[in-house]
Amino acid sequence: MVSLSKTTTEVFKDSKICKLVIISCFISCLIFISSFSSNNLFAQENSDCMECHADPAEVASKVRVDHVTGEVEIVTMVVDEEEYHASAHGGEDFYCIDCHSDLEDSEGEHYPNLQPVDCVTFCHDDPAATFLEGSHASLMQEKGVQLPTCKYCHTGQKSKMNTPRADNLEHRGDTIEKCGGCHEKYYRSYRNNLHGQVTAMGYVGLDIATCVDCHGQHTILNSADPESTLGSEKAKETCGKCHPGAGNSFVKHVAHPAYKDVGYYKSALIALKNIRKDPAEIKSIVKSPQTLLTVLFVAYVGLLVVTFAQFGTHMLLSWLGSILDDRKENKSDHG
Amino acid sequence: MADNTTTLLRFGKFHRLGHTFTIISFFGLVLTGMPLVFKDYAWGQWLYGAMGGYPAAGNIHRLCALLTFVAAFLHFAYLAYESLIKKDRGMFWGPDSLLIQPKDVLHILGDILWFFRLGKRPKFERFIYWEKFEYLSLMWGTLVMAVTGYILWFPVQATRLVPVSVASYIDLPSIALVAHRYEALLAAGFIFSIHFLHTHMLPENMPTDEAMFTGKIDEAHVKHERGAYYERMKEEGQLEGLRVKPSSPMAKFVSRMMGVPLLTIGLLMVGFMLSSVICSLASLFMDLIKDLNIDIFSIFAF
Asked: Would an 8 Å CB–CB cutoff place B66 in contact with chain A?
């Protein structure tokens, strides 16, 4: 024991070794501390990933198995750096392995089919929670419909890898189609409204309402719910985002006119048939603001048909008549 | 006909100016508005893009609407001036009126007989009955389009006029949209098919009725088309006052250069519209029979 302490003091007396130990301690401390602030000091830079993922020859066709559905597909894993930088996660502070955390310590080629990215646990727990608590998600669960993942809606135009920003135009247009994929009836009636008419042309800027602008983004409640974005309390605020000064009458707007929906007429006919059994049903259909729109629509279609049929016949007959008259005149002139 | 060089004045400068304003604004309105109705068709999307896309096309639409209001204002100012200051009531009642007269009913009946070769065509007055219908439908249409267009332009202000209890039955912007859209279809379809084919592309004044651009018309043409008017003018001795110099070849050429492209655009539009309507009707029909599941081969199952 004495000899050990002797040698230690001897070693420490040697200034060179002392310096080395102190410096190496300092460096290891630095590394330890820096690992708290960013764990990427020794991990892969984005450029390491891009060595392969920018090269179509390497990664253009890879097999991918969907973790939820089990579907197998061939996908391209080429990362378009420009697109990535334009996306929501394309800032300077993000590294590939921030999200693809199962590759944290791997080097070189990695195993295929990574784990799905966990958006929720560390970063986006808030929107996920509100989505799962909203009546939209709970109703889907009740009906046994597969809940969408984050990536189902937040998907890039060209590649799933890019998460579009909220004001990305293609994302806004894509959202309408995504919602409309399930809510077909409302999709068609939305397209019948002026908002939907303009967005159908591909103009989906922030100044034209898409589904999420009115119904909310993650907390999607039924519009009959007073707490929803279109409920009696918040509707004025929601409409007022684009129509400043929207009043109590304004928010009664029929954003989903049904007069072009065959199902609407069918349900009205069925209610009419059951008028003895259930008079309340037809009453509720007639008392809605849709009735006036439907009457106006049917009247205008009738007017269109009558006008064009009548004037079309008139025109053809008068053309025919004047041509026949001309011939007669010519004949009498010659004869 | 050609040897008769006498020419009469049919439309004064004021009316030609009004017609030109109406042409410019109407084409602007239709070209920027109609794509919205046919939003699902490629031609509609292309046309909307060609007119400047989302905010620009809407602004052109509003500018043209203002020009329509100018034309309408000029028209009503003219009516007021003629009737109140010049004390000329002839435009409301009588042969020179554009309103439906009892004689027009006789003209319609006579024309129906002529269609079926049961008599000669009646001799028409200054304005023929279908021209009166066109005029009145233009007035009605402008009124509807103006009111509904203003509601759509200022939806927030318009809904302030409706009390909340009524607003749950009467949704003003939605009603305005329905009326605006189908009145537009009616107006554009009517002008581009019936008005064009009935007034401009008649066998006798193919391709355009230049009277509306040069203001002048052949005496023989008037005699043939509007016999009663011609005779009335002759009897009253007003015919000499209507005589003007024949329009120069240049004026005729310019009016054709104006008229023919407009006619082409209009007829193309109505062609696209008609084919799109047929397509939508076909898809509606397919939708309706989709659930029927008629198995026509079941008749062979004996």
From this structure: no
A263: left (phi over 0), alpha (psi -120 to 50) or beta: alpha
* Residue-range definition of the domain harbouring residue A20: 2-37
pTM of the model as a whole: 0.83
Give, to the nearest 10 degrees, the angle between helix B249-290 and helix A262-273.
Answer: 50
Residue B301 within a domain: no
Q: Encode chain A (335 residues) as per-residue pLDDT tens digits.
A: 566 666 666 666 677 776 777 777 677 766 666 555 544 445 567 778 888 888 888 888 888 887 777 788 888 888 887 878 888 887 777 888 888 888 877 777 888 778 878 888 888 888 888 888 877 888 888 888 888 888 888 887 776 677 888 888 888 999 999 899 889 999 999 999 999 999 999 899 888 999 999 998 888 888 888 888 888 888 999 999 999 988 889 998 999 999 988 889 989 999 999 888 888 888 888 888 899 999 999 999 999 999 999 999 999 998 888 888 888 888 876 64
Beta-carbon separation of B130 and A311 below 8 A: yes
Same domain assignment for residues A29 and A59: no
Burial class (CB in 10 A: 0-12, 13-18, 19+), A252: buried
Rounded distance between C-alpha atoms, residue A308 and residue A314, angstroms: 10
The DSSP call for residue A134 is: S
Range of the domain at B179: 7-282
Name the phi and psi angles at B62, rounded to 5.
-70, -40
B251: closest CA among B294, B214, B216?
B214
Nearest CA in chain A to B108: A314
What ipTM, to 2 d.p.?
A: 0.89
Q: Are residues A140 and A226 in the same domain?
A: yes
In chain B, the number of structural domains is 1
User: What's the CATH number where B240 sits?
Assistant: 1.20.950.20
Kindly report whether the peptide bond that precedes residue B207 is cis, defined as omega within 30 degrees of 0: yes
Q: Is residue B163 part of a domain?
A: yes
Flag if A300 and B179 touch (Cβ within 8 Å). yes
Nearest by CB: A292 against B36, B48, B170: B170
DSSP line for B116-178: TTSSPPPPP-SS-HHHHHHHHHHHHHHHHHHHHHHHHHSHHHHHHTS-HHHHTT--HHHHHHH
- Residues 219-258 on A with a CB inside 8 Å of B are 243-250, 252-254, 257
CA distance A110 to chain B (A): 46
With H, G, I as helix, E, B as strand and everything else as coil, classify residue B5. Answer: coil
Nearest-Cα residue of chain A relative to residue B164: A249
Q: What is the DSSP letter of A66?
A: -
Cβ–Cβ below 8 Å for A208 and B54: yes
Q: Does B289 reside within a domain?
A: no
Separation in Å, CA A241 to CA A214, A237, A238, A249, B198 = 10, 6, 6, 16, 49
